[in-house]
UniProtKB/TrEMBL annotation:
The lineage of its organism: Bacteria, Pseudomonadati, Pseudomonadota, Gammaproteobacteria, Oceanospirillales. This is NADH oxidase. Transmembrane segments: none annotated. PANTHER family: NADH OXIDOREDUCTASE HCR (PTHR47354), PROTEIN RFBI (PTHR47354:SF5). InterPro entries: 2Fe-2S_ferredoxin-like_sf, 2Fe-2S_ferredoxin-type, 2Fe2S_fd_BS, BenC-like_FAD_NAD-bd, Beta-grasp_dom_sf, Cbr1-like_FAD-bd_dom, FAD-bd_FR_type, Flavoprot_Pyr_Nucl_cyt_Rdtase. Coiled coil: none annotated. Residues 3-97 form the 2Fe-2S ferredoxin-type domain. Its cofactor is [2Fe-2S] cluster. Residues 104-203 form the FAD-binding FR-type domain. Gene3D superfamilies: 3.10.20.30, Nucleotide-binding domain of ferredoxin-NADP reductase (FNR) module, Translation factors.
Length: 333
């Protein structure tokens, strides 16, 4: 038996390693040629101290208080030289990946499918060489534009670990990736994938969730919902999905399917004043107080900078302080 350990470095890079039963995270990392910080490996110095965001593990008792206090341990801090996982875990490593002699993973892939979903968005599926790419739902990768030495960053919309990954890509007039996808892209084209990266990802579910999606910022939420369906979730999950025009609403069939599998519901909002859509305006105009649970809620927000700024301003103006608040801005290019 082995467990998947996500090592999230402070420069945004994530590396996934497999930790065998009874093996410490430090030993597993070295086995994968990731040199986590350490001086003693005996629970004495505290150099390997990290934070475990989620997962089950044993620390044992063979370490000094000077290396890890009871208060630190209660707050999720761990010594990787003593940490023996008993489930998949997510660990925050307080140094850059380059200092651990690792970096952004590079993977080879081929284009599998390109489907225009609307005038505004394109869905791309790629087949990744090997056994699939590990990532945390919500994270992103750099996709190389085939035939060009440039890349663009996109969030996964697919389930982590699958050999076929999917992305929602904004169709930007004059955009390098958009130009490739709309003019000559074909299944079988080779593509390099770098990642995963990002601190915007689904945390362990402990309370109700509110998802706020803007345009193709829907992508990471599709990945999160797939993960919740696969792992199970007994908390209510609500979404407000905002777009500019009626025909920019995409993947609603996936959202409808999530309604059937989870305690999930969503509303869509269209900004265009000429729209006949039932809800017009912006997500902040339709944030029912019920979805905020008096602040006992985890909020996830992904959209263009003006949307993110508007939500932050709305929360501040309303005196709303969610239990946790995670957001990611993206600029189409």
């Amino acid at each position: 038996m082995s467990y998947s350990i996500a090592l999230n470095f402070e420069d945004g890079v994530s590396r996934f390693i497999e930790c065998n039963a009874g093996e410490t995270v430090l030993d597993a990392a070295y086995r994968h040629k990731v040199n986590l910080p350490m001086d003693c490996s005996d629970g004495v110095c505290g150099t390997c101290k990290c934070h475990c965001d989620q997962g089950e593990f044993e620390l044992g008792e063979e370490f000094l208080d000077e290396a890890l206090t009871d208060e630190e341990a209660a707050g999720g801090m761990v010594l990787t030289c003593q940490m023996v996982p008993s489930s998949d875990c997510v660990i925050q490593v307080p140094v850059a990946s380059t200092l651990c002699k690792t970096g952004v993973g590079s993977h080879q892939a081929r284009v599998a499918c390109i489907e225009p979903l609307s005038e505004d968005s394109i869905e791309v599926e790629i087949d990744i060489d090997g056994e699939g790419l590990g990532f945390l739902p919500g994270q992103y990768v750099h996709l190389q534009v085939p035939g060009q030495d440039v890349h663009r960053s996109y969030s996964f919309s697919s389930l982590p670990g699958s050999s076929r990954a999917s992305f929602l890509i904004r169709n930007v007039p004059g955009g390098v990736m958009s130009g490739y996808l709309t003019n000559g892209a074909a299944p079988g084209d080779a593509m390099t994938v770098a990642g995963p990266m990002g601190s915007f990802y689904l945390r362990a579910v402990q309370r109700p969730i509110l998802m706020l999606a803007g345009g193709t910022g829907l992508a990471p939420f599709l990945s999160m919902l797939k993960q919740l369906r696969a792992s199970g979730c007994d908390q209510p999950v609500r979404m407000i999905y905002g777009v500019t025009r009626d025909d920019h609403l995409v993947k609603c069939e996936e959202l409808d399917a999530a309604r059937e599998a989870l305690d999930f519901d969503y509303v869509s909002v269209v900004a265009d004043e000429q729209s006949a859509h039932p809800l017009k305006g912006y997500v902040t105009h339709h944030m029912d107080p019920a979805v905020l649970h008096d602040g006992d809620v985890d909020v996830y927000l992904c959209g263009p900078p003006p949307m993110v700024d508007a939500v932050l301003k709305h929360f501040d103006g309303q005196g709303i302080t969610p239990a946790s608040f995670h957001y990611e801005k993206f600029t189409p290019n």
